[in-house]
């Protein structure tokens, strides 16, 4: 699941991106500017927004859950989000992931796609209900900008 270059990077000059990320980090300490884009060949929906301001204390897994809810993923699909063509561990804090993988412009870039994995169709489980897991509803203190 790759993208040769981010659409966001193509649409905005480097210096403008760098200035914007610096301004955001100064205005919102403890939060990190993130760009989320769909993989080129993925058939999953686009997110409502591409730019997110993410609290550093949530985990990557919580962020993935937030994004999957924002694109109305069907029950049988799982979302996969990559940074630099790698799948980060779900338990890593977003603050650590940001420090490890941020771009030189100051943004952290994710590419996402989905795959059929859970064996459910049209919200009807074709495996025993105890094996068709749903994540609990959560709310996150994230700012979309």
TrEMBL record:
UniProtKB keywords: Autophagy, Lipoprotein, Membrane, Ubl conjugation pathway
Biological processes per GO annotation: autophagy
Record field: compositional bias (Basic and acidic residues): 10-26
Cellular component terms per the entry's GO annotation: autophagosome; membrane
Annotated lipid attachment (Phosphatidylserine amidated glycine): 119
Stretches the record annotates as Disordered: 1-26
Primary residence: membrane
InterPro entries according to UniProt: Atg8-like (IPR004241), Ubiquitin-like_domsf (IPR029071)
Subcellular localization: Membrane
Record bears the keyword Lipoprotein: yes
A Pfam family reported for this protein in Swiss-Prot or TrEMBL: ATG8
Family the entry assigns: Belongs to the ATG8 family.
PANTHER family reported in the protein's UniProt record: MICROTUBULE-ASSOCIATED PROTEINS 1A/1B LIGHT CHAIN 3-RELATED
Assembly and binders: Interacts with ATG4.
Protein name: Autophagy-related protein
Native source species: Ensete ventricosum (Abyssinian banana)
């Amino acid at each position: 699941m790759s993208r040769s270059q981010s659409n966001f990077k193509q649409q905005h000059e480097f210096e403008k991106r760098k200035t914007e990320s610096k301004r955001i980090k100064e205005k919102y300490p403890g939060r990190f500017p993130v760009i989320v884009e769909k993989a080129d060949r993925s058939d999953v929906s686009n997110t409502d927004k591409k730019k997110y301001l993410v609290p550093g204390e949530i985990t990557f897994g919580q962020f993935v859950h937030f994004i999957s809810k924002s694109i109305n993923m069907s029950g049988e699909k799982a979302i996969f989000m990559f940074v630099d063509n790698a799948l980060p561990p779900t338990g890593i804090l977003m603050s650590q992931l940001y420090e490890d993988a941020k771009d030189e412009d100051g943004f952290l870039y994710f590419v996402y796609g989905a795959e059929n994995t859970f064996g459910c169709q049209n919200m009807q489980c074709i495996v025993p209900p105890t094996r068709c897991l749903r994540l609990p509803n959560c709310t996150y203190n994230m700012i979309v900008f």
